[in-house]
Design a protein that fits this description.
- The protein is of the alpha/beta class and 252 residues long.
- The chain is 25% helix and 25% strand.
- It has seven helices and eleven strands.
- The strands form two sheets. Strands 4, 5, 6, 7, 8, 9, 10 and 11 form an eight-stranded mixed sheet that branches. It has a three-stranded antiparallel sheet with strand order 1-2-3, with no helix packed on it.
- β2 (48-53) and β3 form a beta hairpin.
Length: 252
């Protein structure tokens, strides 16, 4: 599937952002007090926020000012989104959450796969949701619902989601433990999280280190939220596709 941006839509999004018609001020949430889960350091990567979770420094959030990066043509080759969609095994009736939806690159690919279901496109940057809403209307999609989340909560309806997809987003979560605990609550028992991240095990992948994750680190962090690793599929050129599940007998 090619990019859902038409040339006209792409031009309009650029014009809207360029003319300042969107709110261009985005600030991270005010940090909560340090806990046993997080520690902070003034000596840290320039690509990170100086906050560490389970030994991993959290990467800076990609600003809405760079939204066109999400629609770059090279993603078709590098990330093979159609193959990723096929791997999800959707039956057509599921409620799917696209967390860190950005401009809807994956939300709009998920929508036709769940014609009797719904896609919840979650973002914490209102500017991203403005662009996503515009493109949703242009494409006439009625089963994509946008949700403005916070750094700590995606605001998913309780125990309603069959599958949560996180593509190149989780490593930027400012409060990963709180976010994944909230995702856990939003999943149905037996619901799945599909975490897609560039392989940090491979230093030759030309992505900044903090924007990659190892399987070991991902498994550790998902386990901290109560999610159980099911399998990792390695069919993409540069990314892990990791499947986790909320147990049928939920702890919540």
């Amino acid at each position: 599937m090619k990019s859902v941006f038409s040339p006209l839509a792409l031009s309009l999004v650029i014009a809207i952002a360029g003319l300042g018609l969107l709110n261009l001020d985005y600030a991270a949430s005010v940090p909560a007090a340090a806990t046993a889960d997080y520690h902070y350091s003034t000596l840290h990567s320039r690509d990170g926020i100086g906050k560490f979770y389970l030994g991993r420094e959290i990467a800076k959030v990609m600003s809405h000012r760079e939204m066109l990066w999400l629609e770059r043509p090279s993603r078709e080759i590098q990330e093979q989104p159609d193959r990723l969609m096929a791997s999800l095994g959707l039956q057509g009736t599921e409620i799917v959450a696209d967390l860190g939806a950005g401009t809807g690159y994956f939300s709009f690919r998920l929508a036709p796969l769940v014609p009797q279901g719904k896609v919840l496109a979650v973002e914490i940057q209102p500017e991203m949701l403005d662009a996503l809403e515009f493109l949703k209307q242009e494409n006439g999609l009625t089963n994509v619902e946008t949700i403005l989340g916070t750094a700590e909560n995606p605001h998913l309806p309780e125990a309603s989601v069959d599958l949560a997809l996180l593509v190149d987003a989780y490593h930027e979560f400012e409060y990963p433990k709180e976010m994944m605990q909230a995702v856990y609550r939003g999943l149905k028992p037996g619901g799945k999280v599909v975490l897609v991240e560039y392989r940090r095990e491979n230093p030759l992948i030309p992505i900044k280190a903090l924007h990659k994750m190892t399987q070991r680190q991902a498994k550790q962090e998902m386990a901290a939220a109560g999610l159980v690793w099911q399998e990792t599929q390695e069919f993409l050129p540069q990314q892990h596709v990791m499947f986790f599940e909320k147990p049928l007998e939920s702890r919540v």
